[in-house]
Every structure is written in structure tokens, then in C-alpha cells.
Amino acid sequence: MIADLLLAAAILAVAVASILARRTFTAVALFIAYGLLLSLAWVRLSAIDVALTEAAIGAGLSGVLLLGAVRRLASRAEAPANPPPGAAMTVLIGIACACVAAALGAVILLLPEPAPSLAPQVAANLPTTGLGNPVTGVLMSFRALDTLLESAVVLLAVICVWSLTPDGGWGGAPGAAQPILGDGPLLLLARILPPLGIVVAVHILWVGKDAPGGKFQAAAILAAMWLLPWMAGLVAPPRIAARWLRLTVAVGPVVFIAIGLAGAVTEGAFLAYPPGWAMPLILVIEIVLTASIAVALALLVIGPPVPEP
Amino acid sequence: MAEFLLVAALLVFATVVAGLLRVLRGPAVADRIMAAQLLGTGGIAALLLLGAATAAPALADVALTLALLAAFASVAMARTAPRQEKGGEPRE
Amino acid sequence: MSATLFGLMGAALVGIGLFGMLVRTQVLLRILSFNLLGGGIFIVFGAVARRGAGAGFGGDPVPQAIILTGIVVAFAATTLAVALVLRLAANQDRS
Amino acid sequence: MSLLADVFTIVAVLAGLVFFIAGTAGLLRFPDTASRLHALTKADHLGLGLIVLGLLPRAGGMGGALRLLAIWGLVLVSSAAVGPMVARLTRGPEGRE
After folding, report:
1. Are residue A206 and residue A70 in the same domain, yes or no?
2. pTM for the full model?
């Protein structure tokens, strides 16, 4: 019980410090600490799958994404287009936000006592999917449409980010040129960590069938393991005009839709798995989706191509 | 035995949260990075102890992911940190 | 009990994130506050899922799966926001 | 036999805890960044290392033990890489004398 109070207080303290920080870099460093603490909070809420995702995406990829932006924006004095609100206005905004938080808190306190839950239904139908992990079962079978739409959203995000390429830069290698600092330690890490990370990612993907784990967490780790050598300047990202790159990013959702349509033909319902075939089909989708989303997440963090001035 | 591990997990977490003050207060940029890394390591240790106490092997996977990603984030932070001027606050 | 505590913490995070988005003028800090806000909402959702525990699961798996999807989509939105900010900054440089 | 394992676990975890507390205290109390870095690496390496050693007998079989050692190895490698980079930050450019 004390641990929960301590954890909650620590998260709130880091969150407040993060938005009040003077320098953007400090705010992002605090945000990474916030991501780490949040994944511990998810463990206390006994949602281990979400803890894995929050650790991989919240603390890892989001932090590195914002750090990259801080580095590229640090070189120019950022002229604030609109001046910060005055003291009175800030207090007013503070009160309004406190009201929103209080209202949400009241909702939490007034939740219906026999908490409505779909757990029994999931438990009843899980054996049909042949999976042991209920969250993976929901993701891949009962709510497979959400997962399909989500992988499509990731694909769309890649298209949108690439569409921000300044003219003349189209087709080039994505992302700004990484400064080759000749940092010994970074090069060391960029050579040692990726192989380990790939083994961990495969382990988490495979274990995801019966225990917390799964494809999004594995994809985030794989993306991180590609970004590390890119940051160290060891690996030049492929040109976005490269056909195989576009194919890899698109193959995940395409395979998912194809299997969904096949289900519609044979079983009469989109995304329905023929009985007995659920497990192998889900496995195929998971593996293809992991590779596709890993590449997509990495490309999202790398960003659009930036032509040298 | 399990209670001992739970108490140990709580203690490790409490010390690491105390270390968090360095993140909030640390004048130099390097202090914040170090404190964030300590937070990562402490979180991993607390998770391992909690996992051993409640016999939940899945927590070791979370600790493994945290170890990988905390390393990744720490390196990114160390690389992006503004250079330290002569003793003063580094410019924005 | 811990679910309610974390639910209230999530509600407070929503307030903090909203405050950060409205008060801070640096664009990156606004994007960061947006992520704090998102994290808070997911925690509120997670507290509800925790209360729905049953049938041998530590929490109701359906909202947990949806939160998982939400985290990935929020990350995709954040990458797009950062890409827009960087492109704007590059344009300001050129003009 | 299991009593011996339990005693070993308790002793090792307590020792790890001591290093964590000492490392964190060092991080908070020491005057300049370099000495704080020194304190931090102690907490990182030895604190976690001893806790991992303490938990080894309780880890389920070979797989669990391997995973624990992998975690410790990862933290060692990452703090070995981040340490010099952070130190170089405090030295600034002239740190390369």
C-alpha cells in the first residue's frame, strides 16, 4: 500500500517538474523518468502487457523522439510566437484544469460497485484461440479489427511523416544526418546491444502467446535496436524510395487484411478464423506484423528526409 | 521469505525515489541523466524482487525490456545533452 | 484500493497535462504535456480495468488491449507532431 | 539445503540494498558531478548485481537464471557506455586533454 502511495507521488512529482522545467532538455529527461515510473505503475495495476508497452514506447521511443527534436531545435533561438499567459490567466487555467481533474477523480470514486467486466466472457472463449495470454487473445481474435486498424494507423503515420519531406529531398535517406561524434562508448553500445535486443524481442514475441508479451512490445524493441546504430552513425537508413522498404512497411496490414478476407470467404465473417486454424494464422499475422511495425516505428522516429542545405 | 522480498522491493524503490530528487534539483545536466539511469536500475531491481516475491516470471520480462530501453534512453540523453559551459548553466 | 488510488493519480495527471499544454508556449513542451495527458487517461482506463478483474485474470483484458492499442496510436500521433514542428522550424530558418 | 539458499538470498539482497542506499546517498550528498558519477556506478553495478545474485537460487530453472544474468549484463554494458559520455559532458570540450 505504501509502495502505491510512494509510486503515485513520485509520478505526480516528475510530471509537475516536467512541465515546469525551464529547459526543454530537462523536461524530456524528466519525461523519460515519468515513462519508467509509469510502467511500474502498470505493474502495480497488474497489467503486465501494458507495462511492457509503456516501457518500450513511453520511456524508450517517445523519449528518444523528443530528444532528437530537442537536439535539432537547440541550435536556433526559439522565438515564442505567442507570449506566455500572464499570472492571472495562468491561475485561471490552473483552476480550470483542477476542475477537470476533480471531475475525473469524482468519476473514479463513483464507479459502479459490481465493476462491469468482460473477463468471464474472455475466459470462456479464450480456448478457441489456442492462446494462453488473454490480452493477446483479445488483440488478435476478439478485437482483431482494432489491431488491424491500429497497424493501418501506423502505416498512415509513416506516409504522413514522409509527406513532410521538403521539396528536393524526396526519395533521399530519411532523417537528419547524425553527427559522427566518434564517441567510443556509443559505438560500443551500438555494436553490443542490437544482437541482444533482437533475441529479447523474439523472446517477448514468442512468450506473448501464453504470458505477457506480444508483437507491439517486440516491435518497439526491434525499432529501438535499429535506431541505436543509426544514432551512432554506423547504419545509414535506406532511401525512402527503396521499394523493399515500402513493401516491408505495407506488408503487415496487407497480410492482416488478406487473412481477414479469407476468413470472410470461408467463415462468412471478416477476420473470423476457421476452427482449429486460429493459432497458426494468429502466429503468421503476429510475426509479419511485428517486422512491419518495427520498421514503421523506427522510420517514424527517424523522421522525413532532410536534404543538406 | 516472500515478505522479506516485498519489503526489500519497497526499500529499493524508496531509495531510488529519493534519488529522484537529484533529477528534480540536479543543477548540472549530467546529474539528471545519472539520476534517470539510477531510476531505471532501481526500477529493474524492484521489479525483480517483486517478481521473485509473487512468483510472477513475467516481471522478469518487464525488467529485461526496461534494462534495454533505459540503456537506449540514457545513451540518447547523454548524446543530446547541451555541452557544459565553464561551470555556468549551459545555454538553452 | 490501489486501483482507486491510481485512478485518482491518473485524473491528476490529466489535469497536469492539460495545464502544461495551455500554459507552456514552447511547442515541444506542449507535445510533451500532450503525452502526459495521454498517460493519465490510460491510467484512469487501467484503474477501471483493474476493478474489472475476475475469472482468473489480474484485470479485465479487453480495456487492457485497447489501452495497448491507444499507446501505440498516441505514439504515432506524437511522431507526426514532432515532424510538423521540425518542418516548421526548417521553414522559418529559410525565410 | 533450501534453508541455506534462503539465507544466501537474504544476505545477498540485503548487501545489494546497502549498496543501493549508499549509491543514492552519494548521488544526493556529493558536491560535484564526477564524485556523484562514482557513487552512481556503485549503486548500479553492485547493488543490482548482488540482488540478482541473491535471486538466482529462486529463479525458475536455467531459463530464469539466464534472464537475470542477462539483465545484469545489460545494465553493466549500458552504464559502462553512458558513464564516460556523462563524464565527458561535465568536462566539456577541454575534457580531451
Report:
1. no
2. 0.90
pLDDT in tens, B26-56: 677 777 888 888 888 888 999 999 888 888 7
Give CA separation, C49 vs A119, A223, C12, in Å.
10, 29, 18
Residues of A in contact with C5 (CB under 8 A): 4-5, 8
Q: Which residues 26-85 in chain B show a CB within 8 A of chain D?
A: 28-31, 33-35, 37-38, 40-42, 44-45, 48-49, 52, 57, 60-61, 63-64, 67-68, 70-71, 74-75, 78-79, 81, 83-85
What's the rounded Cα separation, in Å, for the pair B47 and B58? 10
Across the interface, of B29, B57, B64, the residue whose CB is closest to D71 is B64
Q: Show me where the domains of chain C are located.
A: 2-94
Tell me which of A81-90, C41-50, D71-80 is least confident.
Answer: A81-90
Q: How many CB atoms lie within 10 A of CB A20?
A: 17
* Cell numbers standing for residue A175: 532523417
Are the beta carbons of C3 and C26 closer than 8 angstroms?
no
Examine the domain organization and report whether A94 and A132 are in the same domain: no
Domain co-membership, A133 together with A277: yes
What type of residue sits at position B44? I
Residue-wise pLDDT tens for chain C (95 aa)? 788 899 999 999 999 999 999 998 888 999 999 999 999 999 999 998 888 777 777 788 888 889 999 999 999 999 999 999 988 888 877 76
Question: In 3D, which of D75, A68, D92 has the Cα closest to residue B28?
Answer: D92
Per-residue pLDDT of A93-128, as tens digits, reads: 999 999 999 999 998 888 887 777 787 888 888 887
Write out the residue range of the structural domain in which residue D82 sits: 2-96
Q: In chain D, how many domains are there?
A: 1
Domain C2-94 has CATH 1.10.287.3510: yes
Q: Which of C12, C53, C84 sits opposite A119 (nearest CB)?
A: C53
**CB A263, CB A125: distance < 8 Å:** no
